[in-house]
Amino acid sequence: MSGSDRLSVPRLGYGAANVGNLFRELSDDESWAVLEAAWDSGIRYFDTAPHYGLGLSERRLGAFLQTKPRDDYVLSTKVGRLLRPNPDHEGGLDTANDFHVPDDLRRVWDFSADGIRTSLDESRERLGIERIDLLYLHDPERHDLDLALAEALPALEQLRADGQVTAVGIGSMVTDALAASVRSADLDLVMVAGRYTLLEQPAAVEVLPACRETGTGIVAASVFNSGLLASSEPRRDGRYEYGQLPDELWERLLRIARVCAEHDVPLPAAAIQFPLQSDVVRSVVVGGSRPAQLAQNAEYASLEIPGALWDELAAEGLIPA
């Protein structure tokens, strides 16, 4: 087998950065309630990473999933950053990375075969779960993309060949890194973060064609574009990536919202389901820090959306035809 045939991922997944205290602190009980809501809503794919809360996301998610039958869910985590004691810790928080956790650990890049294997082993320990289905290389372009292509991706392929994981891939929000990785290695799935959404689709130029050629599946993440698409009434002061929303994207967003309203489709429902219209997208992963958000997103994912909505958006040049 090749490409995404090795692992079937559910249509909707939960990205567990929020239970790593992304943007705000959650108690253990609040995090458990979020995960329980995801499970009760039918979500059976869970994604995490050492980066999320310096391991807190993995620990909380693992504690929750240990209460569930192992064959009932798909679990992915990420490699590339090792967590090591922070010699400069003085009681502060990791808010420079948007996580409200003590910065007593630091992230250390390591794309070597030993580093990749060590990262997997340490994630297993934090999760308390031996079997990890899918392993992504996390943000390779932020460290050294050439090194990732030469060493980290072959190390992932070897872990799969050794039966340590079922499937491998990368997670990134940079289309060049995604396309280069897909063409350089035998990857099963790539997590495309914020680059194939209802608002903008730069991944359609190179990443989707590369995945189509190689049989690689896509997991679409950050489909709400930092929250811009999370409400049917967008806000002009909404956060976009790491700054303010450009005027041209704001105008595009208003046009998309208008078309959705005309078809009586909630904008967030269209945002969740848009990536799944592509033949290479296997799953959409959404976050959330409140139980109600998870229940609502699951409803949006199953809402029947008329084909006429996609037709009109394409006719107006707002999504690929």
Outline:
By secondary structure, this protein is of the alpha/beta class. It is 36% helix and 17% strand.
| End-to-end CA span | 31 Å
Instruction: State mean pLDDT (0 to 100 scale).
Output: 95
**Percent of residues in beta strands?**
15-25%
H and E order: EHEHEEEHEHEHEHEEEHHEHH
Number of helical regions: 10
Helix content: 25-40%
Structure summary, number of beta strands: 12
> What does the overall shape look like?
globular
Q: Describe the largest sheet.
A: 8 strands, parallel, barrel
Overall radius of gyration: 19 Å
Sheet/helix structural class: alpha/beta
pLDDT < 50 runs, ≥5 residues: none
Q: Write out the strand line-up for the largest beta sheet, numbering strands in chain order.
A: 1-2-3-6-7-8-9-12
Describe this structure in words.
- By secondary structure, the chain is an alpha/beta fold.
- 36% of the residues lie in helices and 17% in strands.
- It has 10 helices and 12 strands.
- A hairpin with a 2-residue loop joins strand 10 and strand 11 (243-244).
- Helix 8 (267-273) packs across helix 9 (291-302).
Topology:
Elements: E1 12-15, H1 28-40, E2 45-47, H2 56-65, E3 74-79, E4 81-85, E5 105-109, H3 113-127, E6 134-138, H4 145-161, E7 167-172, H5 175-184, E8 189-193, H6 207-214, E9 217-221, E10 239-240, E11 243-244, H7 247-262, H8 267-273, E12 281-286, H9 291-302, H10 307-315
Parallel strand pairs: 1-2, 1-12, 2-3, 3-6, 6-7, 7-8, 8-9, 9-12
Antiparallel strand pairs: 4-5, 10-11
Helix pairs in contact: 1-9, 3-4, 4-5, 5-6, 8-9
